[in-house]
Design brief:
Blueprint (H helix, E strand, L loop, with lengths): L13 E6 L5 H13 L3 E6 L9 H8 L17 H4 L6 E7 L1 H8 L6 H7 L5 E5 L3 H5 L1 H12 L3 E2 L3 E4 L5 E5 L3 H12 L8 E6 L4 E2 L5 E2 L6 H12 L3 E6 L11 E4 L3 H14 L4 E4 L6 E3 L18 E3 L3 H6 L6 E8 L3 H11 L4 E6 H4 L4 E8 L2 E9 H15 L2
Helix pairs in contact: 1-2, 1-8, 4-7, 8-9, 9-14
Length: 402
């Protein structure tokens, strides 16, 4: 199952996928496949140069739609392909976007079909640059990028890495999964537009001595997915993350912490100094910490070692019991009696909504089954990718948040 599967909200969305000349044009075929499988209606427009790298028939086969290449095509209604193709589309993505094409967009040129469509649009335009390192670094290219960004056009990438010419540097087109995620973010309904959302994610690490500590196997995948879904919904997201190997989504504010106390202090500071409308506590916070932390490594001996543990602060309870708390959402990862324990936790912490799952099935996995508990009862979310579950959760939160 690919990351796009199961996102029903994209089923009626329409994307114009533009392809310009460059070796990375072959990646656009995979991108078209992923987006089409997500239910998006993909209409492809190729420049003459793009057709020298990949044939139009490839994209017609993948999308089920005819491919347009000529400004003067006669098979469009009223012979107005340069206008008709931009009507009723929700977004335009040009991937790859060559240095030449970016320059023409910056100058407002309309000398081929794709450039004309970008000029005659009434929807978001995204460009995914792909070019040689020197071309990317050239001052002219950087000036053109500044111009298009000032015009409200979004730039995705490029990435740093090995290029077709054999050199290494900035200029590689982003991978298809990254571009697919960017398209989905633009096309998702903006259910939380302008809402301030604070999210905790990942594990915490409680030091025992200079080199050892207590932690858990949480990967942060669910918390990061919720942050991404909230971003897609138009929210202003602050993410407080424990140690994780994941790349965080492009949130408005990212705070990296280690211990439960660090996370507690970061949450308190954000709650006190910034308006928080919704608080989603996804982090797997350690319940206990060492009562005394050794500054030096504890040397191994033949004797038994006893650790005295003391409870960590309950971050979610602190927030939910504030005089005017934000809308609080908790997570309950249980190993047994899932529904009973989740309901007890929701009532104890005075939560309008709690999300429950089985820890042994969910922690570290890419997929998860969830049960949402609120005043209306329980709502089952069958096993699916965590980003899909996160999107469903954000939709549920948006309908409950007042």
């Amino acid at each position: 199952m690919n990351e796009s599967s199961g996102v029903a909200s994209l089923a009626k969305k329409r994307l114009l996928l533009g392809i310009t000349g460059g070796v990375a044009a072959y990646k656009a075929a995979e991108l078209a496949r992923i987006l089409t499988q997500a239910g998006i209606d993909v209409q492809t427009v190729m420049t003459e140069s793009a057709c020298r790298f990949v044939g139009p028939i490839t994209f017609q086969s993948l999308t089920g739609n005819p491919v347009f290449t000529d400004l003067w095509t006669t098979n469009a209604d009223n012979n107005m392909a340069h206008i008709n193709l931009t009507r009723n589309v929700d977004a335009i993505l040009v991937a790859p976007a060559s240095a030449d094409f970016i320059a023409r967009v910056a100058g407002g040129m309309a000398d081929d079909l794709l450039a004309t469509l970008c000029l005659a649009r009434d929807c978001p335009l995204m460009l995914a640059p792909a070019m040689n390192r020197q071309m990317w670094e050239n001052p002219a290219t950087q000036r053109n990028l500044s111009l298009v960004q000032n015009d409200g056009i979004t730039i995705h990438g490029p990435a740093n890495g090995e290029q077709a010419c054999g050199e290494i540097g900035m200029g590689r087109m982003l991978e298809t999964c990254e571009l697919a995620a960017a398209v989905q973010a633009v096309l998702q309904p903006k259910l939380l537009q302008g809402i301030n959302v604070l999210i905790t994610a990942g594990p915490t690490f409680e030091a025992i001595d200079a080199v050892r500590g207590i932690t858990n196997i949480s990967s942060g995948k669910m918390g990061y997915a919720v942050a991404r879904a909230a971003l897609e919904a138009g929210a202003n997201v602050t993410l407080i993350s424990g140690p994780s190997c994941l790349t965080a989504p492009a949130v408005a504010k990212l705070l990296n912490v280690m211990s439960a106390s660090d996370m507690f202090n970061a949450v308190k500071k954000e709650i006190q100094h910034a308006q928080t409308d919704i608080f989603i506590s996804v982090a797997a916070v350690a319940d206990y910490r060492a009562a005394k932390v050794s500054k030096q490594k504890i040397k191994k001996t033949e004797d038994k070692l006893t650790l005295l543990l003391e409870p960590n602060p309950d971050i979610l309870s602190y927030v939910s019991n504030l005089p005017e708390p934000p809308f609080c959402v908790g997570f309950s990862a249980e190993t047994e009696e899932l529904e009973k324990n989740a309901q007890i936790k929701r009532k104890k912490k005075k939560l309008p909504l709690i999300v429950a799952n089985l820890a042994q099935e969910a922690i570290g996995a890419d997929e998860s089954a969830l049960i949402l508990f609120d005043d209306a009862g329980k709502h089952y979310l069958p096993k699916a990718l965590k980003i899909v579950q996160a999107q469903h959760l954000i939709k549920h939160i948006s309908s409950s948040y007042k």
